Amino acid sequence: VSKINVVGRYLTKLNGGDFSLTMMAYDNSWNSADQIPARAVESGLIDFYGSLDTDVGGEASRYSISTNYDAGNWQANAYAIRSTMDLFSNFTYFLNDPINGDEFEQVDERTIWGGDIKRDWQMSLAGTQINYSLGADVRYDDIGAVGLYNTKARERLSTVRLDEVQELSTGLFGKLEWLPADQWRLNLGLRYDYFDVQVDSDNPLNSGDASDGMLSLKAGASYLVNDNLELYMNAGQGLHSNDARGATIKVDPVTGDPVEKVDLLVRSNGGEFGVKYYDRDFINFSAALWYLELDSELLFVGDAGNTEPSRASERYGVEVTAYYWLNDDLSLDMELAWTRARFTENELDEGKYVDGAVPFVGSAGITYRPDGDGWYTSVRLRYLGERILDSFDEHKADDTTLVNLALGYQLSGFDTKLELLNIFDSKDHDIDYFYESRLAGEPAEGVEDLHYHPVEPRMVRVSVSYRF
């Protein structure tokens, strides 16, 4: 791995407001294993940290400049980003090409411009307070090349698809907040999003334009029971965007078969009810019951290494967060989340479970950090429950448990930290999938198997930083 990460920031006062200029540079190249089939490890073909294709990895860079201006009632920011990625992967080995293998390259080169502006107002009405805001944002992605290539040892064999994409997204939004009494806070939000895309493909049949707009409404209320306890409820609409190429596609780039387009924007609806309790000398606690439905789920496709739109789905769950202060220097924290995710559209050959859904996630830690200079330390535990790997819930990934330790010393702006990651050298998995792949000598139709990426082994990491 070769990595460069640089951040610079300039702060000043400008016309009575706070102005900041931030520049960031990131450049990284790496060789790393993709997820590996369980049978390859069990047979001894590779070890737990091995790889079936040692050429996978890639390069990525991201350079950005951004400005932010805050003058109280006015806030604005603008940014420009140059991003490149060249990624080599191999998920199915010899399933599609038994001679050269299934290694492929993904390329993405884009320049992004954008910004937003917002204005806040306050007024009184019949002895009550009203706050309202209006704003707009815009983003333009100029994607000079987004491509997929079949490769061998990082050498291109053929082009699967190569496109140029221009994508413009704009939004107008407003928010109204009313405080009818000391205990009550009511809010209403409205947002309109508009997307316009143009795709210039190496296959003219897949070139074209697409656009879509969507209006979203949000509302919420909170009630302050006392100085420490608050109840709240929120409900609203949202959206996610699909790949621009999917909104203009007509034929499969490999087979040439007709393909149905996907919607550019997809609606979501959700809500939550929660409680917050805060005592600055003792505990900070919150719990929420939430619900979310999506008109289309995005799912990972193992043999293509990307995501594709799927059926409508719904989720609901509970989240609990607690921070407990034993004294001024020592604290405990805990975060827990339970989720139930199911498809709401039925298909004859598909089940109701959402692939990759995680029913339970938890983390906890203990931290010692006195004010000012000196020693500090923390121990953290992260837990991921069994994951659902197919829509019939016939295959599951085992749970994952990791424990990390940090020890640091701070003095006069310098912060030196030593981290011991994966203290107990867990052999759990970071991520798991279940799909077909083919190793050399296996049947042409491939073998369904668990594919996983192991958690990183026990390691030590040292960092030094200086703040001024």
Write up what this structure looks like.
- The chain is an all-beta fold.
- Helix content is 2%, strand content 66%.
- The strands form four sheets. It has a 19-stranded antiparallel beta sheet. It has a three-stranded antiparallel beta sheet with strand order 3-25-24.
- The protein is globular and about 75 Å long.
- 13% of the residues are buried.
- The mean pLDDT is 93.
Largest sheet, if any?
Answer: 19 strands, antiparallel
Question: Compute the gyration radius: what is it?
Answer: 25 Å
Q: List SSEs in N-to-C order.
A: EEEHEEEEEEEEHEEEEEEEEEEEEEEE
Task: Please count the helical segments.
Answer: 2
Q: Structural class given helices, strands, pairing? A: mainly beta
Shape: globular
What's the N-to-C terminus distance?
29 Å
Mean pLDDT: 93
Residue fraction in strands: over 45%
Classify the helix fraction into a percent range: under 10%
Q: Tell me the number of strands.
A: 26
Which residues sit in consecutive blocks of at least 5 with pLDDT less than 50? none
List the main descriptive attributes of the protein structure presented here.
mainly beta; 2% helix; 3-stranded antiparallel β-sheet; single chain
Task: Give a topology summary.
Blueprint: E1 2-14, E2 17-31, E3 36-37, H1 38-42, E4 57-70, E5 74-89, E6 104-125, E7 128-152, E8 155-179, E9 184-201, E10 208-224, E11 229-241, H2 244-248, E12 265-279, E13 283-294, E14 298-301, E15 306-309, E16 313-325, E17 330-343, E18 360-368, E19 374-384, E20 387-388, E21 396-397, E22 400-411, E23 414-421, E24 429-437, E25 447-454, E26 459-466
Antiparallel strand pairs: 1-2, 2-4, 3-25, 4-5, 5-6, 6-7, 7-8, 8-9, 9-10, 10-11, 11-12, 12-13, 13-16, 14-15, 16-17, 17-18, 18-19, 19-22, 20-21, 22-23, 23-26, 24-25
